[in-house]
Design goal:
Its EC number is 2.7.1.107, 2.7.1.138, 2.7.1.94. Its cofactor is Mg(2+). Keywords: ATP-binding, Kinase, Lipid metabolism, Membrane, Mitochondrion, Mitochondrion inner membrane, Nucleotide-binding, Transferase. Residues 58-199 form the DAGKc domain. Pathway: Lipid metabolism; glycerolipid metabolism; Glycerolipid metabolism. The protein is α+β, with helices and mostly antiparallel strands. It folds into two domains: 22-185, Probable inorganic polyphosphate/atp-NAD kinase, domain 1 (Rossmann fold, 3-Layer(aba) Sandwich); 208-261 and 299-400, Tumour Suppressor Smad4 (Sandwich), CATH 2.60.200. The chain is 39% helix and 24% strand. It contains 14 helices and 18 strands. It has helices at residues 2-10, 12-50, 71-74, 76-90, 105-112, 125-136, 141-144, 161-164, 171-184, 213-218, 231-239, 274-286, 340-352, 408-419, and strands spanning 62-67, 94-99, 118-123, 149-153, 187-197, 203-205, 208-212, 248-255, 258-259, 302-308, 310-314, 326-327, 329-333, 362-366, 368-372, 380-383, 386-389, 393-405. Strands 6-5-18-15-8-10 form a six-stranded antiparallel β-sheet. A six-stranded antiparallel β-sheet has the order 14-13-11-7-16-17. Strands 2-1-3-4 form a four-stranded parallel β-sheet, sandwiched between helices. Strand 16 and strand 17 (386-389) form a beta hairpin. Helix 5 runs parallel beside helix 6 and helix 11 (231-239) packs across helix 13. The protein starts with a helix and ends with a helix.
Length: 420
């Protein structure tokens, strides 16, 4: 014992390094053990769904998974296979996994997709944007848009996960919770933005569109990886070396919010008997002709010339209100008069919440808008964190267009917040 203590004292540097290495290794192994316990508990819960009896005449529900293996710096495929795939297969679903090999492939695959009961998106914001764009470009999108959609957050940016699932610092728990939420069947309706240029096919987004200096600086943050936690501030600081103040000029036309119609019941009422239908036909035939309906009033467009450091058009999906009576999207026009210090500070905040509308900005609620850019305008739009060439566009709100699976706890919180 004494010889051992003497050896540790004489070689204290090696002893300290060995103790640190042993402590780190123990902590890593304990984390792996906890992750395995989470996976096992999730699989046991999924097996309870798989053990449920179904009628012999009823086919298995078919789930089509669109997996982007390149998400999360190429780790998405492994994350899906270890954490989500076992849960889906144990649940009794007929699972088909479609892996995308290049950007834009999901849009093309959606055009060829046959009937399915569930659509599951495994990836990040870019994968979500591709899948819903391909889905809503179909000729039969009216029928396919009613298919519920599940989202398994595997990407670097997963904006929807903040709306659909509780916050979690453990990645394994976050993925397993999202996969189990698909099996539990609770859904919420989400708004979609239809963004159409003059020539291109429309693009669809569930978060929104950004155009301006904060977005341009944000996409360059990864170039300063060597600065560690200072990379975000560095990207915004170096962007101020360009022409200052940075102005983005455009013309905006928009329509105000629209009244939300009552939600259609999921189950249609049964067809009335034949004699009731005949009676209604005869009554409508013999009744006096109705007065011609009044002419529809022209749409009341508002026009605005703007000069801003950044413009954002966002859905209300971040702050989902299931009981609101009006449908609209948020348009935020930020003041161009901002100091360089404020720009750097606010840029860091916008990396956490890209569509935040800071104090002093002009805020507009609209159901539809047209953005006209001066000829020769360069730069890019950020549509759901995906880059598109800046051009004149028409943005139209499609309220409650798609239904996404969500954690039942989140839906309950939304309903409680609406009551309060």
């Amino acid at each position: 014992m004494a010889k051992g203590l003497a050896a540790l004292r004489n070689h204290w540097k090696k002893s300290t390094f060995g103790a640190c290495l042993l402590g780190w290794g123990g902590h890593w192994l304990y984390g792996k053990h906890c992750d395995n316990l989470l996976r096992r508990a999730a699989c046991q819960e999924a097996q309870a769904f798989g053990n449920q009896l179904i009628p012999a005449t009823e086919p298995l529900k078919k789930a089509t998974v669109f997996l982007n293996p390149a998400a999360c710096k190429g780790k998405a495929g492994n994350l899906f296979e270890k954490n989500a795939a076992p849960i889906l297969h144990l649940s009794g679903l007929d699972v088909t996994v479609v892996k995308t090999d290049y950007e834009g492939q999901a849009k093309k695959l959606l055009e060829l997709m046959e009937n399915t009961d569930l659509i599951i998106i495994a990836g990040g914001d870019g994968t979500v944007q591709e899948v819903i764009t391909g889905l809503l470009r179909r000729a039969d999108e009216a029928a396919f848009s009613k298919i519920p959609i599940g989202f398994i957050p595997l990407g670097k940016t997963c904006t929807l996960s903040h709306t659909l699932y509780p916050e979690s610092t453990n990645q394994v728990q976050h993925i397993t919770n999202a996969t189990l939420a698909i099996l539990k069947g609770e859904t919420v309706p989400l708004d979609v933005l239809q963004i159409k240029g003059e020539k291109e096919q429309p693009v669809f987004a569930v978060s929104g569109l950004r155009w301006g200096s904060y977005r341009d600086a944000g996409v360059k943050v990864s170039k300063y990886w060597y600065l560690g936690p200072l990379k975000t501030k560095a990207a915004h600081f170096f962007s101020t070396f360009k022409e200052w103040p940075q102005k983005h000029q455009a013309a905006l036309m928009y329509l105000g919010p629209t009244e939300r119609p009552p939600e259609e019941p999921e189950e249609k009422p049964s067809r009335p008997p034949l004699y009731v239908r005949l009676y209604r036909r005869l009554r409508s035939y013999w009744s006096s002709p109705k007065e011609l309906s009044q002419e529809v009033a022209p749409e009341d467009w508002e026009e605005l010339k703007l000069s801003t450091i950044e413009l954002s058009i966002a859905t209300r999906n971040r702050q989902l209100d299931l009981t609101r009576t009006e449908d609209f999207m948020d348009i935020c026009i930020e003041a161009e008069s901002v100091s360089k210090g404020e720009f750097v500070h606010r840029g860091s905040e916008k990396m956490r919440d890209p569509h935040m509308c800071p104090e002093g900005s002009q805020y507009i609620q609209a159901s539809r808008c047209i953005l006209q850019l001066p000829e020769g305008t360069g730069g890019s739009f950020g549509i759901d964190n995906e880059e598109y060439e800046a051009m004149p566009v028409e943005v139209k709100l499609l309220p409650r267009k798609l239904r996404f699976f969500c954690d039942p706890r989140m839906r309950e919180q939304m309903l409680q917040a609406a009551v309060q």
